[in-house]
Amino acid sequence: MIEEDDFDEIYSEPERISLKFHEMLACINEDTDHSSAISDDVDFEDFENFEKEIKEQEICNERDETIEPLEQARFTSCVIVDYIEGKFQRCEETRKLRQLRNLFGTWQVDRDAIKEVDGVLSKLGVCDSHFQFDNKYLHKSIDKQTKNFNEGIIQWRQCVSCKKYVTFFSRGAGCAIHSWHLNKKNIQVPCIGQYSCEALQSYPKLCNQAFDNIKRPQCICCLCYENLGGHIHHRSGTRGKSATTCITEKLHDSDITEGLKFIGNLLIKIAQTENNDEIKKNILIKTFEILFPLISNEIYADSTTTISNPTVNYEKQEKIILDKPPSLFIIKFLFRKIFKEKDAKKSEIDNFKVNTFVFF
Predict the structure, then answer these.
(1) Using an 8 Å Cβ cutoff, are 277 and 22 in contact?
(2) What's the rounded mean pLDDT across residues 49-78?
(3) How do residues 200-225 score in pLDDT, each as one tens digit?
(4) 126: exposed, middle or buried (Cβ count in 10 Å: 0-12, 13-18, 19+)
(5) Sheet of strand 63-66, all strands in order from the earlier edge strand to the far edge
(6) Of 85, 98, 215, 311, whose CB count within 10 A is highest?
(7) What is the pLDDT of residues 123-138, one digit of tens each?
(8) Judging by beta carbons within 10 Å of its beta carbon (0-12, 13-18, 19+), is residue 196 exposed, middle or buried?
């Protein structure tokens, strides 16, 4: 059965064929899961991890917990999850600590640290380094006047990409500056992932800033954000030393090429499915319409691209003029359900490199 929330996952096809398209995608995922289960031996470590996640799910449904404004003499070591010593992990700095609720933006925080305080969330600490970065670089002073300290909350969430359970700190429902509406879904990644990276960017009819219209945000953990083409800002950690960014490292230079490869692999995946001739035919027609100008002898004066709005019928198609490609993150996020990572154990990001998505 096709879930209603899944109908808007694919945004590139007209409404007339969208239902069959999603039925096909469901078939792809079912075949992948089935073949994997047959070919792989039972991994007891994976089974234990699965049991652990089930238990976590039972005691930790998605919810928000307010950080009560209680004075504390001592705090935990810094609970922020950041890129430290070559991997994503808890900061654990113990110097110059203050209450976590002093932060303004949205941050991923260590789940175990949250559990350790046994519900007394005012004991959660953040180091001066993360506080100052949030205070001076991620957000402006005028922004902080819109929300007070009492709105600090801990968000218990499931990452919409890897499905693992994560926790976020946020002042209010989310960050009005760094929260987005992507394909009609409210998307929230840690603010530090948008300091210099433009993986989330305005794109006609598809991706726009949410501002204060934040409802049921879908959270993406730091690791998945990078796996999908974004980049968490890697702070230098040394006073006076400039931090490297995805811009200074030119990590987006190959995004267009990678985007084309990703879509090419997507078409191959669709071509390899069985019993979907009608949807394949429609996709081929649309693909050919786009590629035909490249080999036609006719001269096309308009170099911009037009796409059909899938929310209207063919008779009333709305043309959207595009003057730039979507970001690699947007492409991978929209089609993420069709792909699986080659090696689930690759949980560390090295020098901003993105793990390759392949087909099973």
Answers:
(1) no
(2) 77
(3) 999 988 999 998 899 888 999 999 99
(4) buried
(5) 63-66, 152-158, 165-171, 107-109
(6) 98
(7) 999 999 999 999 889 9
(8) middle
